[in-house]
Design brief:
It is built from 15 helices and 18 strands. With 445 residues, the protein is an alpha/beta fold. The longest helix is centred in the C-terminal third of the chain and has 24 residues. It is globular. The two termini are 42 Å apart.
Length: 445
């Protein structure tokens, strides 16, 4: 009888891609995949170790799933991902329920480790300077009509609050030809939307080729049968240029959507974060983007409660958010991460003040987002239909072109449509989170 495995994914889209490669490795070695953890012989948990809340979620998930070992048939708990990489020794000592702990450099070897009974892994405190992307196993996709396409791993930005370089190592671009080949592989499997991801997509190519090659990559992603949308995520503000704007204006696949993590607006706080610029610079950049591409959709993330953030610094951030009028914005509270430069800074902000500032920015963005979303009502929009909605027959869950998977809500379409298709929908309602509408009868692709 075939052994069964389930893969639980926590954290970001990059972890989702890693999990798809892990699944591919398991299938290649004759292990059947199941969504039911109770039926699984192996439970693989791909963890996140980015901030305190993510670490807590990962640990709680490990402990919850470990309880199944005593409640159902014998199974092994296998832990990998960023938490395993960062806290390898601690996890080995503190959670004996873990049967196999695998660092990032061996996460695609899990099937071999299971088969060989090898419970060891490389030293988690050392990251490799080189990744051979060509050795990655073929992915097992989610079954949805979109996919993430990772173009690089690691990071060189060294933001003072961020542990990613310590966990995933220096920035490493995937060869351009391999990315194009993977995109064609996704196209051949009926994928309609690919989302390009990296810790910093705007830096793509610099480490491999000595220069930025993002626009060359975008130009090479062409001539698809199924892919209709390409979305750019995680571009740092100081790498935006005229070439990229030209691609957004002319590339028929590239959606006018950019995710730019500005993080703050106070030059003092940005400097302490080891980031560049200020709110005034960013506002000029946003105005430039909107002049060049009037229908552009902008998402960002900002952080409140960074050490030393005064009321004046916070006011600059609030004023920036108010003036920028982002379509989507994520707010994070500063989380002290050991080993980062920010962990040693004076001027820690009390938790109650962090919470107050967090809720103030969230409330402001809710008003801005509501207003910008209401401007889309009674207008046609292309929507990628993903699946039948749970709300009832004849209702389908999808995303309009201005909605990134998993973070920007959904568009619910009532009518005769087909999952996997892109349909033209008249948007009739926005309920504060999601859009609703009916098809106009046109299928664009």
């Amino acid at each position: 009888m075939l052994k069964k495995a389930t893969v639980i994914t926590l954290g970001c889209a990059k972890n989702s891609v890693d999990s798809e490669h892990i699944k591919g490795s398991l299938v290649k070695h004759g292990i059947e995949l199941t969504e039911n953890a109770e039926r699984a012989d192996y439970i693989v948990i791909n963890t996140c170790g980015f901030i305190e809340a993510a670490k807590a979620e990962s640990i709680n998930t490990i402990l919850e799933l470990a309880e199944l070992k005593s409640q159902s048939k014998p199974k092994q708990i296998i832990v990998t991902g960023c938490l395993a990489q960062r806290y390898y020794d601690d996890l080995m000592q503190e959670i004996p329920e873990i049967d196999l702990l695998v660092d990032l450099r061996r996460e695609f070897e899990i099937a071999d480790l299971i088969r060989n009974g090898d419970g060891t892994a490389h030293d988690a405190h050392q990251t490799t300077d080189h990744r051979d992307f060509s050795t990655y196993p073929e992915r097992v996709l989610s079954g949805l009509p979109y996919a993430y396409l990772q173009i690089a791993d690691g990071c060189d930005n060294r933001c003072s609050y961020c542990a990613i370089p310590m966990i995933r190592g220096p920035y490493a671009s995937k060869p351009l030809e391999q990315i194009v080949e993977e995109a064609r592989w996704l196209d051949g499997r009926g994928i309609k939307e690919i989302n390009l991801i990296a810790q910093d997509t705007s830096r793509y190519g610099y480490d491999l080729y000595g220069r930025n090659r993002l626009t060359e990559l975008l130009n090479a992603l062409d001539d698809f049968e199924n892919i209709a949308w390409i979305r750019l995520l995680y571009l740092q503000p100081y790498f935006l240029n005229d070439e990229l704007i030209n691609s957004l204006q002319t590339n028929k696949y590239l959606l006018p959507y950019i995710d730019i993590p500005f993080q703050h607006a106070s030059s003092k706080i940005l400097h302490a974060m080891n980031r560049h610029g200020a709110g005034t610079d960013y506002l000029a950049q946003i105005a430039w983007l909107r002049r060049a591409i009037p229908d552009i959709v902008l998402r960002t993330s900002v952080m409140v409660g960074f050490p030393g953030e005064t009321e004046d610094d916070f006011k600059k951030l609030v004023d920036f958010v108010e003036q920028a009028e982002f379509d989507y914005l994520g707010v994070f509270q500063y989380s002290e991460e050991e080993g980062t430069k920010a962990a040693g800074l004076e001027g820690a902000i009390p938790e109650e003040i962090k919470n107050e500032r967090y809720h103030q920015v969230v409330a402001l963005q809710d008003l801005i987002g509501q207003r910008r979303s209401e401007n889309r009502l009674e207008k046609p929009a292309d929507v990628l239909i993903e699946s039948n909605a749970e709300s009832g027959l004849g209702v389908f869950e999808g995303r309009a072109w201005w909605q990134t998977p998993e973070v920007d809500g959904y568009t619910y379409v009532t009518g005769d449509v087909k999952p996997g298709s892109i349909v033209t929908v008249e948007i009739s309602e926005f309920d504060g989170c999601d859009f609703h509408g009916r098809p106009l009868g046109g299928v664009s692709k």
